[in-house]
């Protein structure tokens, strides 16, 4: 019995290590890395609130949905970033839905721009599989960063 416990423990640790390796390897397969490539065309979006005047500014795009708790939990953080950096960076939430509930939530809770992309062509070009999904476009129209985990510290790193 004493020899079985270390063997069992070693097998558990190996299994955990294999599982973590599998997760890490599959993280990058949740979207296509388009870093330094031209940003997908966003001219087909329809603004639901706070239309953006200058689409030439650097822009943080956020794909989200009302049914996504992780998406909604990030709204206060994104509102604060918009308040702090909105004069030089656009923040545009791209809703996966276009309905009355989404429009009401956007108008009452989201301070940055909210749009709808009926074709979802940009998100499909990133091959994004999960939301929230974020993509940052530079002023010259290139993808600076994309991913599912966005942190406020990224803004001053990309836009000092």
List the helices and strands and how they pair.
Blueprint: H1 4-27, E1 46-49, E2 59-64, H2 69-85, E3 90-95, H3 100-109, E4 113-116, H4 121-126, E5 133-137, E6 143-147, H5 154-158
Parallel strand pairs: 2-3, 3-4
Antiparallel strand pairs: 1-4, 2-5, 5-6
Examine the coordinates and then state which fold CATH places here, giving the name of the CATH topology of the largest domain.
Glutaredoxin
Q: Spans of 5+ residues with little confidence (pLDDT < 50)?
A: 7-27
Largest sheet: 6 strands, mixed
Overall pLDDT metric: 84
- CATH class identity of the largest domain: Alpha Beta
**Total number of distinct structural domains:** 2
**How many DSSP helices?**
5
CATH-derived architecture of the largest domain: 3-Layer(aba) Sandwich
Task: Report the count of strand segments.
Answer: 6
Biggest sheet, spatial arrangement of strands: 1-4-3-2-5-6
**H/E element sequence:** HEEHEHEHEEH
Tell me what portion of residues adopts beta-strand conformation.
15-25%
Radius of gyration: 19 Å
| Euclidean distance between termini CA atoms | 60 Å
Helicity, as a percent range:
25-40%
Corresponding CATH superfamily of the largest domain: Glutaredoxin
Assign the structural class, choosing from mainly alpha, mainly beta, alpha/beta, alpha+beta, or little secondary structure: alpha/beta
Sum up the overall morphology in one term. Answer: globular
